[in-house]
């Protein structure tokens, strides 16, 4: 059984090792996106598709000036910087990878966006007080948690009554997988540092159990197929030229050790083993943070506290 500490180390190594590759083949200097792109009939380029994901999050969250927003699992800050610039919100971006925090902070300073702030924190136990945020969003990041329900409880706690949670993420299909399918699925998730996926049928119930209401889950799998195909095509090409790339000093894990898992991710998609979903959920206006209280009780029973004054679980 993987511990949280071991998982965090795996995630840090993965992002340290693969960042250069993401920069070369995936995101550009402006969007800094470490996520799949969403394609619709108006989308013309890969870069537009990456921004579409930000826009879907922003629109479904109802972002507007004056709001305080949490980006849970912010990567190098691409989405947080984009929403700060385009929607006039203040954003707290958190990630467990220290290099991502440094990079995102430098970008916020460079772009003169003081409302986009970044810190190294675990989204399962943040340092933020109860009811801090108007919106919390998680773009392909909640899948990295060992305990998805704990993630939801923490998001519920830090949201204000009436606040919204928006997520884009990968989900496991509901039917049991055969051994070969299981192996294929495990190959791409563990190879990209994801411990496991939440079940597409279980997740809505977990969101409600955390205290959220008006839970909407939309299947956007069809909109990411093109993005996945692009990743697959590029990696196939790069792995073919890997020996030459190595000679040029351009090879890193993405093209080497991590190429197979990403290729398996596409195979797994083609076999229909996972879905890509949008989740929108509301914390009720009249909520006095019932799940927050549960979380505190649960946290105290494990010796942790959500009271920042009592020493948060924030790392670093
Ligand atoms: C696939 S990247 C997505 C980054 C960003 N949302 C984007 O779309 O560009 C997943 C992110 O989740 C972060 N993450 C994973 N586990 C985390 C945790 N326990 N607490 C905070 N962030 C976490 C990783 O460090 C990484 O930044």
Descriptive report:
- Helix 2 crosses helix 3, helix 5 (148-158) crosses helix 11 and helix 8 (221-240) packs antiparallel against helix 10 (259-270).
- The protein has 11 helices and 8 strands.
- It is α/β, with parallel strands linked by helices and 316 residues long.
- The chain has one domain: 3-Layer(aba) Sandwich (Rossmann fold).
- The radius of gyration is 19 Å and the shape is globular.
- The longest helix has 22 residues, at 4-25.
- The protein binds S-adenosylmethionine (SAM).
| Overall number of structural domains | 1
Uncertain parts: 290-316
Measured by DSSP, the beta-strand proportion falls in 15-25%
**Mean pLDDT score, rounded?**
89
Structural class: alpha/beta
Ends: how far apart? 25 Å
The CATH level-2 architecture is identified as: 3-Layer(aba) Sandwich
Which hetero compounds are present in the coordinates? S-adenosylmethionine
Shape label: globular
| Number of beta-strand segments | 8
